[in-house]
């Protein structure tokens, strides 16, 4: 059964419809995903904000107490010179603040008072220099510090502000020391995420734990760090790899991420720097939770995604299978066309029949065309064994006429030296084997340099550059071919024989075309430039050189280390001929590309 292209397209469009349905489903899924993100973001934003509110409710009353005392002392309404009177005032002030532990009053000379709420005692203290408030004092908004107490060495939070006279001079520095453990209890209230426990905490300078549900004071009275607290997730906060938390949108002023812990768990963190009060470092409020806390929403979302993805995958697979089946004949045709383009006709497969009428007719026509091309290629290959391939293509295009062409070309004439003497020592088979071995390598070099061998004259080669295929760098390529062959013949034996050769190069006008009888033609070149190349080759005997280059060639290919041999009279020519040779043969490789010359080395200057 054969089908029309229209029927195939109907199937393809059916697949596209399935893809469209999948696309709509993905849009709905994206909406559900966005709703889930909004929900999770709102929960985490609420938790971090509640932690911020709890810390503010803890610190603000202490700050207000410190500022009230500074104002009272500045207005001389508080008798700081009478310790007993001051003790009762401070006891009353701290009675409504359970988080307040102690109050200090420090005068500019380092002396002052320390009131302890627990014992309701007041002591006169002379603070060491490192614990004295600087002469400049603290600003009017006060400052929170977290450092060891000068009395017992324990870490506490302390709000410090200063009382000043009308001239702005510091009268006293007031410190309100806070017990921070109630802050840990406040942060723990209502700390839950989707029914699972959520941990709120506060850090000072990213290391010291100010508040945490596990916070306890050691016997030495020091405050734990994230490494000593006992929270395995907080301990890895700055060491474990972080991963972006894609299911949470922006939380203003906070960073959020998953931590890849050494327990092979993913733990969520939200961190927010508390900039509402001045401190001697940075204060960070944070929460952390197990990834599974958001599992119900995530599992529903993942389930929906799995179903939608399965539908889309099935639709895509069906569309691909249908599309491939429909496109298979076209793919075969394209592959076969590439084979034709590369002219590897024997590797071009025959196109099978197709169910589509139009494609079946195209396959039949294509197969017939390939058969014709194979026959033409067979004739050209057979023809190319007797003439150069470029000439064979030219004659085929010219229907064998080989119309004469005038061109300015470089003629390459090579003759083996001493071949007659060597031939006397070899049998005919050895002579043919030696010549064929040398000619094969020499022709490869000439053709790599874009030259065309037009004749084999006994032990000689006649080649031409720039016809029938144009080559703007024909002179350079001819010189390169001569150098490469001379270097090759010095390093390689042919048919077991060590050979030597002489080469003549000349550039000038010539005529190329098919010459001979109507029944038998030969493609060759004629002209005075051809004769001069042959004579230059012969003159190598007189000059004891291997290569002679006419001045006309040297001018067009100047980038070689030429040596001027002399100016000679040549039979049949009125003017003298200047000849050059290259004694130190430079290293040259094959031509890079048609029409592109190559550098031959640093020495490009002709020697006089």
Automatic annotation (TrEMBL):
Residues 410-537 form the Guanylate cyclase domain. InterPro entries: A/G_cyclase, Adenylyl/Guanylyl_Cyclase_3/4, HAMP_dom, Nucleotide_cyclase. GO terms for molecular function: adenylate cyclase activity. It holds the Pfam family Guanylate_cyc. The keyword Acyltransferase does not apply. GO terms for biological process: cyclic nucleotide biosynthetic process; intracellular signal transduction. The keyword Membrane applies. PROSITE patterns: GUANYLATE_CYCLASE_2, HAMP. Keywords: Membrane, Transmembrane, Transmembrane helix. CDD domains: CHD, HAMP. Residues 324-378 form the HAMP domain. The chain crosses the membrane at residues 301-322. GO terms for cellular component: membrane. Coiled coil: none annotated. This is Adenylate/guanylate cyclase domain-containing protein. The lineage of its organism: Bacteria, Pseudomonadati, Pseudomonadota, Alphaproteobacteria, Rhodospirillales.
